[in-house]
Design brief:
Blueprint (H helix, E strand, L loop, with lengths): L1 E5 L9 E6 L15 E5 L4 E5 L5 E6 L9 E5 L7 E5 L4 E6 L4 E7 L5 E6 L5 E6 L4 E5 L8 E5 L7 E7 L3 E6 L3 E6 L8 E6 L10 E7 L4 E6 L4 E5 L5 E5 L6 E6 L5 E6 L3 E9 L4 E10 L5 E8 L4 E7 L4 E5 L8 E4 L8 E4 L4 E6 L2 E8 L2 E9 L8 E4 L5 E5 L4 E8 L6 E5 L3 H6 L5 E5 L3 E5 L5 E7 L4 E8 L18 E6 L5 E6 L3 E6 L7 E5 L4 E8 L2 E6 L4 E5 L10 H6 L5 H4 L6 E5 L2 E5 L4 E5 L7 H16 L22 E4 L5 E8 L2 E6 L19
Parallel strand pairs: 1-54
Antiparallel strand pairs: 2-3, 3-4, 4-5, 6-7, 7-8, 8-9, 10-11, 11-12, 12-13, 14-15, 15-16, 16-17, 18-19, 19-20, 20-21, 22-23, 23-24, 24-25, 26-27, 27-28, 28-29, 30-31, 31-32, 32-33, 34-35, 35-36, 36-37, 38-39, 39-40, 40-41, 42-43, 43-44, 44-45, 46-47, 47-48, 49-50, 50-51, 51-52, 53-54
């Protein structure tokens, strides 16, 4: 087996600018099923992560050029789905529809550029701090899509860099003039400034109060500023209680645990510091406990969630990766870095033409690999600002479909004889543009046929005529009605999360977040049928043959189904014997990012591992494995016995007949795909090859 290691794909993740959990911490209950983490990026994308079952990247809300996400908040009511709000470099507050991935409303706060946002404790009002020194309150109690002006607080001259609610009655803001101000949010003095506190001034430059948190139980305010100071203030008397100067640069983010006994601070100097509350009989005071250096660049945001079963401290910033660690075991606990994560892949491999395709933001790049060398043969940049959601290429490499939520475009790729580069020509069809307003997923099949999944979860089939330069509607696939009944009150529970086409191009398989796996015919206008409804989330799908489908769920378990509606058995013989006895080593791996079939082998991979299962062989059970191990030892002990040496990293003839194989040689993995008769390609992107901005230079201790 020849493996092509491909490291030229210049994918660069974007800076993490903000994070927010959908629920507040509750230590007396288990983690809610509908808990989600929103991660904002500097390119305007918002990622929705499910933290349960090893962190699943479920959705990406596409942004647009020049629109960084600078703040995120969730509104989680008792009888409604969680609502997500964002701000970013404008005067608008955006509420998102997680079902369609589109904004529901862009509300203009009629003040300056918004710098900060927070939600009240009763989840009925938002407050935003603006560039012109005003603080605007917005009423969101009207439900989904409802934002109404409530009040503009008393203005002052400095921009409000951070804003926090105290209960539902007061607003605390950190300003660019080194002052902390409080405004009344209710009562007769609503909107008026109640008090002003001043932090230490820098001799060189103006002091900025970047971050504030409010401890309602302790009735204290904690502030972090550009001098590196973390200060504790009395919320009733508005006086300074304690001050720590442990950071060597700006403090950009603060957070606290549910008991309000641990404070975490982070910023430009890359370190996360912890402060603990020490209580004696007569006094209570905060002490600096310890710090950890887990990031290689500025930390822009931190979020904490605690429950009976979990406690997470999430941090992210310029390094572009999420760092996940424990709140309770912060000092020496294990941590996880989600760096180049491709659960939502943006890489395509065309086996027939030896092409590798990458898309990011508004740009698509195509490389050709010949004789072990690569060459960039096409680069396409779209005029519109909106980010791309999906790209696909037909097997012949002659058509390229590009989807965004506002439009779907089809391009013809013509190879130039002299330069061997690809000439890109758009197929312009006004009728097609009027029929399809945008798409989440596009798929090309059977040379000139196109499938589009719209933002409203409708699936259309089109036929592309290269000669006439037309794209005509063939049919609409009537989807089965999906039940939304679920304990998890999330609006996109019935959305499509996977869509694949069978090898004979006769059937279409889709899976949904609610566990449904459905099959639809592409050649006949017949109704689809439900193959199965899993109790767990179907993470990946792949056809092993025209009548068999493999499903990998959120627990890394593999099931193989017969797809025919009249099949006597649902599970295949291999799945019946092996699905519940998969190796423990495989079940505890990081989330798989992709799967494909080559011969009898099912290949799957994650960000730091590659594995395969031979579906023609049964897996060894524990007893069989121990027995074989003893036989191997006996054989090796014989004087003239043959010995095999395998480091567990290279795929060669010695391990071709094994039922299961895994390696961690390749990392970080972006894509693994079939690349020929006896070849596969592994696309990697080393963390060291990413472009880096200069980081804060911490003093080095040389020994």
């Amino acid at each position: 087996m020849d493996i092509h290691r491909c490291r030229f794909v210049d994918y660069t993740p974007h800076t993490i600018t903000s994070t927010a959990f959908s629920h507040t911490s509750v230590t007396n209950r288990n983690t809610p099923n509908d808990l989600r983490l929103a991660v904002g990026r500097s390119n305007g994308d918002i990622e929705i992560w499910n933290p349960k079952n090893n962190w699943i990247h479920e959705l990406t809300l596409p942004g647009s050029s020049g629109r960084s996400v600078e703040g995120l908040v969730w509104c989680t009511g008792e009888d409604e789905s969680p609502r997500l709000f964002s701000i970013g470099g404008s005067t608008y507050i955006t509420e998102w529809d997680l079902k369609t991935l589109k904004p529901v409303i862009n509300y203009d706060c009629n003040a300056g550029t918004i710098w900060s946002i927070d939600i009240s404790r009763n989840q009925k009002k938002l407050a935003v701090g603006c560039d012109d020194g005003s603080v605007v309150m917005i009423d969101i109690s009207g439900g989904f899509g409802s934002l109404e002006h409530d009040n503009i607080c008393q203005r002052q001259d400095a921009r409000v860099l951070t804003i926090k609610w105290y209960e539902n009655d007061m607003l605390i803001g950190g300003c660019s003039d080194g002052r902390i101000r409080s405004w009344a949010a209710s009562g007769d003095s609503k909107g008026r400034i109640l008090s002003t506190m001043r932090v230490d001034k820098s001799k060189i430059e103006s002091t900025l109060v970047w971050s504030i948190i409010v401890l309602p139980k302790k009735k204290q305010i904690v502030s972090g500023d550009s001098t590196g100071s973390v200060k504790f203030w009395d919320l009733e008397q508005f006086t300074l209680l304690q001050s720590f100067n442990k950071h060597e640069a700006d403090v950009l983010s603060l957070d606290f645990d549910v008991q309000e006994e641990k404070i975490f601070s982070a910023g430009v100097d890359r370190k996360i510091h912890q402060y603990n509350l020490i209580q004696t009989k007569s006094t209570t005071k905060w002490v600096h406990s310890f710090n950890r250096l887990l990031h290689s660049n500025d930390i822009r945001s931190m979020s904490i969630f605690e429950s009976k079963s979990h406690n997470w401290l999430i941090s992210g910033g310029v390094e572009r990766c999420l760092v996940i660690q424990s709140v309770q075991n912060f000092y020496d606990g294990k941590y996880k870095k989600l760096s180049i994560n491709q659960q939502k892949s943006n890489v395509l491999v065309n086996e027939l033409k030896s092409l590798v395709v990458l898309w990011q933001d508004q740009t698509i790049k195509i490389w050709r690999i010949t004789d072990g060398k690569y060459k960039l043969i096409s680069k396409l940049t779209l005029n519109d600002d909106e980010n791309i959601t999906s790209v696909d290429m037909n097997d012949e490499g002659s058509l390229l479909a590009v989807a965004r939520l506002s439009s779907v475009k089809v391009f013809e790729l013509v190879e130039q004889e002299k330069t061997l580069k690809l000439k890109v020509q758009k197929i312009r069809d006004d009728n097609f543009d009027s029929l399809v307003q945008g798409g989440k997923i596009v798929k090309l099949y059977d040379s000139n046929k196109l499938i589009v999944v719209t933002s409203d979860e409708e699936i259309y089939k089109f036929i592309i005529d290269n000669d006439a330069k037309t794209i005509s509607l063939d049919d609409e696939i009537e989807l089965l009605e999906s039940s939304n009944a679920s304990k998890a009150r999330i609006s996109y529970i019935s959305n499509i999360n996977n869509l694949i086409i069978s090898p004979d191009e006769q059937n279409l398989a889709i899976s949904r977040f609610n566990g449904s796996i459905e099959i639809y015919s592409l050649s006949e206008s017949s109704n689809g049928h439900l193959v199965s409804k899993l109790t767990s989330y179907p993470h990946l799908l792949e056809f092993t043959s025209s009548d068999k489908l493999v499903v990998m769920n959120e627990e890394n378990k593999i099931y193989e189904f017969f797809i025919a509606s009249d099949s006597k058995s649902l599970l295949t013989p291999w799945s019946k014997r092996n699905s519940e006895v998969l190796p423990k080593q495989f079940l505890v791996l990081e989330r798989p990012q992709g799967v494909f079939v080559k011969g009898s082998k099912l290949w799957t991979y994650g960000s730091n591992w590659v594995s395969y299962f031979d579906l023609s062989l049964n897996l060894l059970h524990k007893e069989e494995s121990k027995k074989r191990g003893r036989e191997e030892e006996e054989r090796k002990d014989k004087p003239n016995g043959d010995t095999e040496q395998n480091d567990g990293e290279d795929v060669d003839e010695d391990v071709e007949d094994k039922s299961y194989w895994i390696t961690t040689k390749y990392r970080p993995v972006m894509k693994v795909e079939n690349f020929g008769l006896n070849e596969i390609i592994v696309v990697e992107r080393s963390q060291f090859s990413l472009p880096h901005t200069p980081a804060f230079n911490l003093p080095k201790l040389r020994i």
